[in-house]
Amino acid sequence: MKQKWPILIFSALLTAFIVLAGIWGNAQFEHLHSGSVLTAQHAAQGIALDGWRQEAPGQWHFTFTVGEDIPSLTLCVTNTAVPLAHEGLTSLERSGELYALDVTPGETVELVFTCGRSPQTWLMTSAFASRAFRFRTMTQVIALTAFVTMGMVLLALYHYKHLPELGYFLLYLVIMSAWALMVFFFPAIRSSLLQRILRSFFSLTVLASALLAAGLLGVKLPRSGRGLLALAAGCVVFFALSMSSYPPLRVGVLVAGMCLCLYYLMAAVNADYEGAALMLLPGAVTTGFRVWALMPGLDSALFVESVPFYLLRCARLYDLPFAIGCMVFVCRRFALLFDRTEQLARELDARVAERTKELTAETEARKSMMLNIFHDLRSPLFAVSGGLETLGSAPEALPALLPALRQRIEFLRRLTEDLFLAAKLEQKQILLNEDRAALNEEAAAVCAACRSEADQKGVELHLSADTPLPVWGDSVRLQQIIQNLVTNAIHYTPAGGSIHVDCRAEDETACVSVQDTGCGIAPEDQSAVFDRYFHTTADKKHDSTGLGLTIAQELAHLHHGEITLQSEVGKGSMFTLRLPLLTD
């Protein structure tokens, strides 16, 4: 397995860098401590209120002095804090999130809120608040539009291709869109039920992220039995702990869930899963932003969130990198599938064209064969018909015509037998009666049967069959193979020529070579000698049916062997039957 340590280390460092950079960047903004003086410069930039004092259960106090003339102030409250009566505090149209605060220079202002934890509040001028919250609204709309757009694209893909991972992605985008909508319309929720629902979204996004990563990376999640129960129980425990009212426990569980998802992506990259890095790097970015966004929930004096960080957190932009990375991963997968489909289509077209060419050639070969068969059938039929007509008018000519008639009838018999056997071989209807056989003895039997035919033509037939060649096969078919080779050599060897049949063993192969001194075969014809329906022509007429070599080669293949050819024009040809040699 090829290790991917550089990208894994970079992803971990990237997450840590984002978290630390967020903490450092937030610390660069000034805080207004209780009892301090508020300046116009602080108000113009927006400043967080730090150091709330709890003077009664659930009651928090904060005081500051107005140092200069500040025309108007806006107080932003983000959590469940509810202000007690204050004559200069007026609620604005942001669902209890924003309040207008009227102050005069030198005045000491005391803010009193009821809340279960230290209130998260900021002071700013009305002009700054107007610009800042327009920016937040714009970024929230951008994030929501991005989630909805990706959801529509995924919905279209899922409509045409029902893949489980697309369903997981749709679920993730639905959760993100619902969360973005809820934050947009309810920036400061007072209802305890809505507060719990809003808090549950973060847990749901972590679970959905893990489910999405597993689905896209091809992990088969359990769907029944104990595996499904264990998975469901784990999710319930995680969700319950992540909803804890104890901030360190809640934040710790959520961070652990995000790190587990990130570790899973790293494992996929390390396992060389194709395209996993497309989700790992954006996942590392989103994990870092999410950890940073959880920091205010710790209610720690070490991290008092500033106005710019609060606005970015409310915009929900930090979840976009992982969503975009997953979208790129899905698009890449579909693009690769499309490329593969195009490649398969091109290969299929090429195969169809090649097969069409082969079928055309085969059709032409069949036509040529049929013409040759008709020619070979017509000639003896004409000879027999002419002989019968002669006998009808001159019966005394029977002794002279009888040998020629027998020869033509014998040729017709052999031609029909070869045609029938070739058809059975083509339909794979030949069954072998296999047993142990001696190939050298089969060759000797064939040569003894063909010797009279060779002598009649004036061709010398020599045999060398002293080497035992035990093989496994059908004795009748083995003799038929050798007989076709020998008779083919006799047909193409002129009178005065010779044929040598040699039986020998080469390594673990039994070989029977039939070498003649005939006319030989041209190089351009040698590759087609064993083709089905191939018919050679010769200047000299002979009684070959033109199917012997085709039948012999196919019978050799049935015996797990083959016939090879060596030929030179003008010097003759050598056909060699090669079969597996039995060694025991």
TrEMBL record:
SMART domains from the UniProt entry: HATPase_c (SM00387)
Which reactions is this enzyme annotated as catalysing? Answer: ATP + protein L-histidine = ADP + protein N-phospho-L-histidine
Q: Which UniProt keywords apply?
A: Kinase, Membrane, Phosphoprotein, Transferase, Transmembrane, Transmembrane helix, Two-component regulatory system
Tell me the CDD domains matching this sequence: HisKA
Recorded name of the encoding gene? phoR_4
A Gene Ontology term for the protein's cellular component: membrane
- What name is this protein filed under? histidine kinase
Compartment(s) where it occurs, according to its Swiss-Prot or TrEMBL record: Membrane
Q: Give the principal location in a single coarse category.
A: membrane
Please list the residue ranges annotated as the Histidine kinase domain: 372-583
Source organism per UniProt: Faecalibacterium prausnitzii
